[in-house]
């Protein structure tokens, strides 16, 4: 029955996580559950993360729910993407990247969200620690990727790298937005940020089209001045 095993694994994993303080769980068994979830999440269809979903996640509780749902799927997809590169096991940098994403996926799936509709910043403290840990862990990702690309087969390299980096942009947006929302709420700046047009990392008063037009006009003026000399 397709989908049954992943669902059972999810329920068992959550039960074991909640009982971890009282019951000793076999590490091997726990890793089996994590591996099953990783396989399940990596097979899900990835959908683009639209800006309006980022903007709508304007409170600590909403952004936590968004991150909790989206990050595991995207880390699982990144792991699968690394594994799809022929000979990845022979490249130390790709092996390290895979381990980074595996550790972050594991941390997320072993974390639990508070069982309230709109948790406070203090109630999200444990989850915030997980996100901060993920951000620290991922600091060397770009350097490792650059080093890996130097040693990889050039065939299909561009499309592989493009997919990897687009996925990274999304996950960086999610974690950065989470931290910005939580820090604003912690410091009492949430209302001031909204009145200034900022929601987390998003400046709602920014008009990219207008900025591009201004840049284009500046370039045209510069070229006109150069041609006139």
Structure at a glance:
By secondary structure, this protein is an all-alpha fold. It has 10 helices and 2 strands.
Map the helices and strands:
Blueprint lengths: L3 H15 L8 H16 L8 H6 L3 H24 L8 H18 L15 H13 L3 H10 L6 H30 L3 H6 L2 E2 L2 E2 L4 H21 L1
Antiparallel strand pairs: 1-2
* Largest sheet data: 2 strands, antiparallel
Question: What is the count of DSSP helices, taking H or I runs of 4+ residues?
Answer: 10
Q: Termini distance?
A: 75 Å
Major β-sheet strand ordering? 1-2
Stretches where pLDDT is under 50 for at least 5 consecutive residues are 1-5
Mean pLDDT: 84
Write down the Rg. 21 Å
Helix content: 55-70%
The structure class reads mainly alpha
Strand content: under 5%
């Amino acid at each position: 029955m397709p989908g049954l095993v992943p669902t059972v694994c999810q329920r068992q994993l959550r039960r074991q996580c909640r009982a971890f303080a009282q019951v000793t769980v076999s590490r091997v068994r726990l890793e089996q559950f994590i591996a099953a979830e990783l396989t399940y999440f990596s097979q899900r269809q990835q959908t683009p993360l639209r800006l309006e979903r980022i903007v709508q996640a304007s409170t600590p509780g909403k952004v936590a729910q968004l991150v909790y749902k989206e990050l595991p799927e995207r880390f699982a997809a990144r792991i699968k993407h690394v594994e799809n590169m022929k000979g990845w096991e022979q490249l130390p940098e790709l092996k390290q990247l895979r381990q980074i994403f595996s550790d972050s996926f594991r941390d997320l799936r072993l974390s639990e969200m508070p069982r309230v509709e709109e948790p406070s910043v203090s109630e999200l403290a444990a989850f915030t620690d997980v996100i901060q840990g993920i951000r620290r862990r991922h600091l060397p990702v770009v350097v490792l990727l650059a080093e890996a690309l130097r040693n990889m087969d050039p065939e299909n390299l561009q499309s592989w790298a493009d997919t990897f980096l687009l996925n990274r942009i999304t996950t960086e947006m999610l974690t950065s937005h989470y931290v910005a929302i939580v820090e604003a709420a912690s410091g009492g700046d949430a209302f001031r940020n909204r009145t200034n047009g900022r929601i987390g990392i998003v400046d709602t008063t920014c008009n990219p089209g207008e900025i591009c037009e201004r840049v284009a006009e500046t370039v045209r003026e510069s070229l006109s001045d150069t041609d006139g000399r």
